[in-house]
Specification:
Blueprint lengths: L5 H12 L5 E7 L5 E7 L2 E7 L8 H12 L7 E5 L4 E5 L6 H6 L4 H16 L12 H20 L5 H20 L2 E4 L8 E3 L8 E3 L6 E4 L2 H7 L8 H17 L7 H28 L10 H11 L7 H10 L7
Antiparallel strand pairs: 1-2, 2-3, 3-5, 4-5, 6-9, 7-8
Length: about 325
């Protein structure tokens, strides 16, 4: 937290809580400018979001939090807000994410079961008209992060004329495929780091965080994000077993998923879009925002791409371009 915001936050909390007798402990930070702090006052724990207003708009978070909670999804309750200063006081869903629980040795199977249940529930939400669409412009801007930030800025690579044509062909195919999928509520970062195992007797299952960028978009996006995590990889067979489990439950819930081969293709292709986007985002975080550690996970995404590209001959030329530039672990 910037030092000039700490007094503002403490003064606001004193007014909201009605006491200055509280402690603040860092809880989490994300890739943006937001940070999260655990507020302990008496025997109660809450979370405060610090979202500097110059770089954050709290309106989407507030609207989507209400949408999720009204639909019965476990999401933080907004207890107090100051959108001018950029502070939210939220209910505390716990101090260990699904990813942290797995890294600490928890059995991933029941956690993925709960996450899949929450996802199917979330995708059944009737989408409000104000929810932004995952349209062609947004898909293209995200994909362009790969050549602009990863290739050009991070690696100093310039594609030749033929390679540029291959890139634009792949880009067009991925955008068109994404737009052709059935549209549902899309969290856009539905992965174990943003999911909270709930242990309370009245709150089983999984809590959902970091949903402020949600859109109406391709049905395979969030299931793919869940099993092809940004910070932990699973064997392809296991990831696809979870993906099929999602598909079975989605069909049982009458969500608009195609047959299994069609859904797997949709997941593979929207996965390519996400993997390329995230590679570009991680490079931008290093070079624009000074957050260098994210690029250490870039090889994971090239590995994800290499897993599925051989399935689709229409991407053979693109796969050859990627093979030339795939980084080693020593040079992400």
């Amino acid at each position: 937290m910037p030092t000039n915001r700490r007094p503002l936050l403490e003064n606001w909390l004193t007014r909201v809580l009605g006491t200055a007798d509280f402690t603040l402990a860092h809880a989490a930070a994300d890739a943006g400018a937001r940070s999260y702090w655990r507020v302990l006052a008496g025997n109660r724990s809450r979370i405060v979001m610090d979202a500097p207003p110059a770089s954050n708009d709290l309106a989407p978070f507030l609207a989507i939090a209400a949408l999720l909670r009204d639909a019965g999804i476990t999401a933080p309750e907004v207890l107090a807000q100051d959108t001018v200063q950029g502070f939210l006081l939220l209910s505390d869903l716990g101090d260990r994410t699904m990813l942290q629980a797995i890294d600490a040795g928890a059995d991933p199977e029941p956690l993925f079961e709960a996450a899949i249940d929450a996802l199917v529930h979330m995708q059944g939400i009737a989408m409000p008209t104000w929810l932004p669409g995952y349209d062609a412009s947004l898909l293209e801007r995200e994909l362009d992060l790969f050549p602009d930030w990863y290739l050009a800025r991070h690696r100093g690579i310039t594609l030749d004329t033929r390679e540029q044509a291959v890139w634009f062909d792949a880009r067009t195919r991925l955008v068109n495929a994404a737009l052709a999928q059935p549209r549902v509520f899309v969290h856009r970062d539905f992965m174990p780091r943003n999911l909270m195992p709930m242990q309370c007797a009245d709150q089983g299952g999984i809590g959902v965080l970091d949903f402020q960028d949600a859109v109406a978009g391709p049905i395979a996006y969030d299931p793919l994000s869940l099993v092809k995590d940004a910070f932990r990889s699973w064997p392809l067979e296991r990831a696809e077993s979870w993906l099929r489990r999602y598909w079975e439950r989605a069909r049982a819930a009458t969500l608009p998923v195609p047959d299994w081969p069609g859904f797997l293709r949709d997941a593979d292709w929207i996965g390519m879009q996400r993997h390329l986007k995230v590679i570009g985002i991680f490079a931008r975080l290093k070079h624009r925002d000074g957050k260098a550690h994210y690029v250490e996970d870039v090889p994971r995404f090239f590995a994800y791409l290499a897993e599925v590209l051989p399935r689709y001959p229409e991407f053979d030329e693109f796969a050859a371009v990627l093979a030339r530039i795939t980084p080693t672990r020593s040079d992400p």
